[in-house]
């Protein structure tokens, strides 16, 4: 079933008052503030919602997105679920930066990721920092310091790291803003400019069994792309997330995705691994199993009908995505606006056009046991096509049951190992 999710954003402006970027915040509801017990889970929830539900382009456009991140997230490699372009991770100095953590941040920097040192209040913090040299920005809490300390911090940064952008954060009054302008800050953030804007949308949570089965497969040293395709192919909600990620990533695609397998190849197994990790944190046990199984049945049926042809992969993808409008309670044309699928797939799903649309119509006739309609659509023996559909339905049900049983068994047998797997999938 669908549920509402939330995220908040607050602008960061430059000296001309233009929006430089947005800081993204975790929210559980429409309130302007929220509390959470686990900062790492909150950060991952922000990434998952921004990346897989809204899309970074919608949230920040061509601006920068600032996301709070404990350094453990970088150490475990989960930052790479997001493309580096336009993202700035905010690090807090109170985190114990041992050498492996510093090395991980340095590696991420070489990969194109940017960092801001957050919540700085004293020169001593800057002078003793092990990660300042790895940060392209520093955010200073101006409400917590006096004018002399503020000027000294700006002068210190201009001297030791002149290319660093200096951000004045938590500005609440015109007087504070004037002080920061005179002190020479580059960027500004706080309630004086805007309170965080809370955004809301409905979504279908990923099915826990499907996600954990995929996550387990992605931990194998000999990951089998056929098995990955099969696992994603049993869950239309999971497939939707995959297509959304391809659409959100900085691939600069000049062509449309032709099939589920094509999307997996474009994204790469490492990104699929991070996708599974993010989804595991928001997976639900109350997803609509009937719709998931129906989508998998249509996919298997359309694939079987076109076996050995050049449209087999597209046929599978059309069948799988054909239930996403019902899963998300959103019109299909709106869903497809967010997905980089081919024109043939899009036309089949919205208007039933083309060979792929014909396959969906045939599947629906079989679902309804409408023999008259099947006879109109299919020139061959009706019993053969009905058996094909029966076989597809049996396969989909068996796959859903297998995933559910195996996942429940694995979690029950070793819950600690599964928590560890979530924590270290990127290591």
Largest sheet features: 8 strands, mixed, barrel
How far is it from the N-terminal to the C-terminal residue, by CA?
Answer: 33 Å
Strand arrangement, largest sheet? 1-2-3-4-5-6-7-8
Question: How big a fraction of the residues is strand?
Answer: 5-15%
Overall pLDDT score:
82
Structural class by SSE content? alpha/beta
- The backbone outline, from C-alpha atoms, is elongated
SSE succession: EEHHEHEHEHEHEHEEHHHHHHHHHHHHHH
Low-confidence stretches: 406-427
Helicity level:
40-55%
Number of strands: 9
Molecular structure report:
By secondary structure, the chain is of the alpha/beta class. The protein is 54% helix and 14% strand. The protein has helices at 39-54, 56-60, 71-75, 99-110, 123-128, 147-160, 174-183, 208-218, 225-232, 236-248, 260-267, 269-280, 289-305, 312-321, 324-328, 332-337, 343-351, 354-367, 371-377, 382-413, 415-424, and strands spanning 3-14, 19-27, 64-68, 87-92, 114-120, 137-141, 165-169, 187-188, 197-203. An eight-stranded mixed barrel has the order 1-2-3-4-5-6-7-8. α4 (99-110) links the parallel β4 and β5 (114-120). α13 runs antiparallel to α14 (312-321), α18 packs antiparallel against α19 and α20 crosses α21. The longest helix has 32 residues, at 382-413. It is elongated. The chain starts with a strand and ends with a helix.
């Amino acid at each position: 079933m669908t549920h509402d999710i939330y995220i908040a954003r607050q602008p960061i402006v430059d000296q001309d008052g233009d929006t430089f970027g947005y800081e993204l915040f975790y929210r559980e509801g429409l309130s302007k503030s929220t509390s959470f017990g686990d900062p790492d889970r909150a950060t991952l929830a922000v990434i998952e919602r921004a990346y897989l539900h809204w899309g970074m382009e919608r949230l920040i456009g061509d601006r920068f997105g600032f996301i709070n991140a404990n350094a453990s997230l970088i150490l475990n490699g989960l930052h790479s679920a997001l493309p580096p372009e336009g993202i700035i991770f905010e690090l807090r100095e109170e985190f114990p930066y041992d050498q492996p953590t510093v090395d991980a941040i340095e590696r991420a920097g070489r990969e194109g990721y940017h960092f801001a040192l957050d919540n700085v209040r004293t020169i001593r913090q800057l002078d003793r920092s092990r990660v300042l040299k790895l940060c392209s920005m520093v955010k200073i809490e101006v409400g917590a310091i006096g004018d002399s300390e503020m000027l000294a911090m700006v002068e210190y940064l201009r001297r030791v790291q002149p290319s660093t952008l200096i951000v004045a954060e938590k500005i609440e009054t015109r007087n504070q803003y004037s002080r920061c302008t005179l002190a020479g800050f580059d960027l500004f953030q706080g309630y004086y400019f805007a309170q965080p804007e809370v955004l809301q949308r409905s979504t279908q949570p990923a099915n826990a069994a499907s996600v954990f089965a995929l996550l387990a497969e992605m931990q194998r040293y000999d990951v089998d792309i056929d098995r990955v395709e099969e696992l994603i192919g049993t869950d239309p909600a999971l497939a939707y997330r995959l297509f959304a990620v391809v659409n959100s990533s900085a691939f600069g695609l000049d062509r449309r995705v032709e099939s589920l397998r094509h999307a997996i190849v474009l994204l790469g197994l490492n990104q699929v691994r991070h996708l599974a990790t993010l989804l595991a944190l928001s997976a639900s046990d109350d997803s609509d199993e009937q719709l998931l199984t129906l989508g998998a049945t249509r996919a298997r049926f359309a694939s079987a009908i076109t076996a050995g042809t050049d449209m087999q992969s597209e046929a599978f993808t059309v069948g799988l995505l054909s239930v996403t409008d019902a899963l998300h309670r959103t019109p299909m044309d709106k869903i497809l606006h967010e997905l980089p699928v081919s024109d043939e797939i899009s036309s089949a799903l919205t208007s039933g056009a083309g060979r792929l649309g014909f396959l969906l119509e045939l599947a629906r006739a079989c679902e309804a046991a409408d023999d008259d309609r099947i006879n109109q659509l299919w020139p061959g023996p009706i019993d053969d096509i009905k058996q094909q559909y029966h076989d597809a339905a049996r396969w989909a049900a068996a796959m859903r049951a297998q995933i559910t049983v195996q996942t429940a068994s694995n979690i029950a047998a070793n819950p600690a190992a599964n928590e560890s797997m979530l924590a270290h999938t990127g290591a």
